[in-house]
Amino acid sequence: MTVPLSADSDRPDAPQGPPPAAGARSAGRPSLRKPSSRSVSDPLPPAQFAFGAQTWKEIAHLLVNLPVTLLGFTYVVTVLFTSAGLTVTVIGFPLLAAALMGARQLGKLERARARTMLGVRVDEPSPLPLRKGGGLLTRLWMAVKDPVGWRTMLYELMRLPWGIVTFTVTLVSLFVLWPVLPFIARGLTTVDRAMVRALLSPSDELERRIAELESDRGVVVDTAAADLRRIERDLHDGAQARLVNLAMGLGLAKEKLLEDPDSAAAMVEEAHGEVKLALQELRDLARGIHPAVLTDRGLDAALSAVASRCTAPVKVSVDLETRPAAAIEGIAYFTVSELLQNVSKHSGARSAAVDVWRADDRLLVQVWDDGRGGAGRGGGSGLAGLAERLGAVDGLFLVESPPGGPTTVTAELPWRDREDERASQPRPGQQKADGRG
Q: How many structural domains comprise the chain?
């Protein structure tokens, strides 16, 4: 006789493919959208009187709930009370940070148990960016305010009474109510699955975005510090040294002006050459900071100037009706500049192309060359540095460079209008009212 089943099995939502790239100018453009992270569960077989493998897994999970939750509850209560009592000392704050990081590991074990026993697949949360967090206090504060650690502690606290209930009901049903035990186990584990998805899943989109921005802020600070060191080094080793030699040469020429006019004239001529070299080095340095042609005429003219210095012929196409914000424009310029330098130094290309266009609220830059290929972002290469810089401003970076070529590098930057940037800046001479009339 066939008995109708009353317990429904958990079924995941239908998988969805990644969203199409927004505003790609042609079908050949690569998609640069970030895939969304979500929980996925395997389809579960229906509960039945003849205990199947999934039913035994669910029963084992419910029986193991009590010892596992006892350990988790003991850990959370111990570390919380201990760190709270030691907050008056210097070790209370670090102990709480270490406890939350340990809670993350407990959550990892619980996710693995749910994946093995219940068929619930929950993505692992993003790791804390502690290496980019700055000093010790900054990293400790990042660990203390970690939402994943706090949600795991809440999960362990809530699980103790539930673990007692599930262990008792399952053990009694195993001997007394065994004909309907599959349905009881399915109902109890359905609650377990809901708790795992609610409390042990990755952070929501806002929390993920906050973590990304905190990580990107460190990249921006490191990049700015490296640029300042480069400018100081170039000034000290280049233009400054030449100006010092120029001053010494003019001093010697002044002393010999009356005694040996010919030698003084030769020294002045040499000093004149030093002035030209110093001016050229200062121009190159200024171009590396922010070229005047970019400020005055925009990306089209600035990228054409960069392309003219490349060893391979470069075709530049800029399709922009308006100019983006100066910061975005500068990042796009220096990205293309460094990519074309790589084309000149490493690719062996016979031709290259630069394409810039706007797609909705994004600025897309694509650099192509027919060189030998094989470029990659690994091993601390310059491409890895470009990817970090673009990521710091919510940009994306994609490299397609099979061995033998061709190489296509696509960068995507957020679009901000230049008028919006100007409106957000204070006007010259504008000051806050200070109550002095």
A: 3
Q: Name the domain boundary from 256, 289, 322.
A: 289
Integer Cα distance of 86 and 69 in angstroms? 25
Residue ranges making up the domain that contains 56: 40-203
Which CATH number fits the domain that encloses residue 384? 3.30.565.10
Domain-embedded: residue 194: yes
- Same structural domain, 302 and 257: no
Whether 208 is in a domain gets the answer no
Residues 258 and 390 in one domain: no
CB 406 within 8 Å of CB 353: no
Residues 277 and 198 occupy one common structural domain: no
pLDDT in tens, the chain (437 residues): 334 444 444 444 444 444 444 444 444 444 444 444 444 556 776 765 556 788 888 899 999 989 999 999 999 999 888 888 887 788 888 888 889 889 999 989 999 899 998 888 887 887 776 765 567 788 888 888 888 889 999 999 988 999 999 999 999 988 888 888 888 989 999 999 989 888 888 765 555 565 555 555 555 555 556 666 666 665 665 666 667 777 877 887 777 777 777 787 888 777 777 777 777 667 666 655 556 677 778 888 888 888 888 888 889 998 888 888 887 888 888 888 888 888 888 788 888 999 999 888 888 999 998 888 887 766 555 777 778 777 777 788 888 888 887 889 998 888 888 765 555 555 544 444 444 33
Asked if the bond preceding 291 is cis, omega within 30° of 0, the reply is: no
- Give the DSSP letter of residue 41: E
CA distances from 71 to 78, 80, 156 (A): 11, 14, 9
